[in-house]
Amino acid sequence: MKRYVIERAIPDIGSAEREELRGAAAQSNGVLSAMQSEGKGIQWEHSYVASDKTVCVYVADNEDLIAEHAERSGFPATTVTEVGKVIDPTTANG
Hints:
Elements: E1 2-9, H1 18-37, E2 42-49, E3 53-60, H2 63-73, E4 79-82
Antiparallel strand pairs: 1-3, 1-4, 2-3
């Protein structure tokens, strides 16, 4: 599977209460579960919540599955970028 970074423009999401975020996560998980039961390769790793957007990391067989999840869940996929490489502090160690 490929890794994707998804920006979702959601006004004022950064001020959402924990219960609202739980509900959003449950909604997303429900759609993901349904898609996986249909044999579709997609998984949510985690998301970062900012003032007016979320930045989500997913793994999926292809970008079309990201778009399908966005449509079925009601959460916009404003920008979808496939991750080419991953680096971290240990990359400097050669």
